Amino acid sequence: MNGRKVVSVVLIGFIMTGMMFASGQKDQAAVDDGIVRVAMVFNQLGDMGFNDEGFSGLEMARDELGVEISYVEAPEIAEVESQLGMYAEDGIYDLILVLGATYADSITSVAKMYPEQSFSIVDTAMEGHGLPNLHGVAAWDPEQTFLSGCIAGFVTMSDEMPLSDGNNVVGFVGGMDSPASRAGAAGFLAGAKYANPDVELIYTIAGSYRDPSKGKEIALAAYDKGADVVSHNAGGTGLGVFDAAAEVNKYVIGSSLSSLDVDRSLCTSMKRTDLFVFQEIEAMVNGTWKAGSDRKGLAEGVCYYDVENLNTVLPEKIVSAVEEIKNRVISGEIRLVNDPGEIEAWSKVNSY
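The structure assignment produced for this chain is given below.
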């Protein structure tokens, strides 16, 4: 695989270069060799979550589809546009991807400058962007966490789960106060309320995806208030949630298979970022890639909950109930909310 060193550029110079060479200067030999080339820009490896999973999808495409890949880590948002521009300027990549909704403005700007280059952004659908060379794809964020929330709601009132005190309280740690993060929180909290209308919900935003200490502090506070289960969609901050669960011996639900506590994890809320990346590249290889926007969820198999490799065992009645609820979501009988502020009104007309 190819790595690319992050470099700083003078923005004015970059813009002038883009204006002069917006069509891209192609390496004709590379273009004509029949190899599909893909480049990806993302935050940083090592988060044991979103970025690592997206990178796994890039590697999967290399190994299974035979594409040639290049990537760059850009931890600072100010670096992203220049990195995208340099890849586009190379003129040899069939597809350039970015991971993360926070890069929407950057990829939109560069896509306008390079209209012949195909771009994809994973984790935001970019509805209505109107660009003929940009595809946005995202999960129905509440669908990633809704079933896990149902499990938490059932478990906190269950007398069959040894680490549950029956306090009827669950907690959730959000990463940033963004629409996607709030939608994920809404899915979990609504799920808990759907399964257990009397459950008390604790929702706290950490303000960071890279602060495990903050995650632990927030989770310990929730457990101290009686939470039997705490979940998160806070990236690396969520590692602290697992530390807190281990410290107080309580249940936890993560959002990546990279972070598990086999004795305390009830399940993992899954959003297959690796599949989103792989499917974008696969579409380019197959000639079916097109601009626009898409959202995927439970029906497409990219959102679900996972219980593999865990020592915790959910009672069969909970598993059966959650399967029934999943089918209700897929059929459209249950329509989920996208913000925690909507849950109170929603729960008055939605319950198991």
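Interim note for the steering committee: Residues 54 and 179 are 20 Å apart (CA to CA). The chain has twelve helices and 13 strands.
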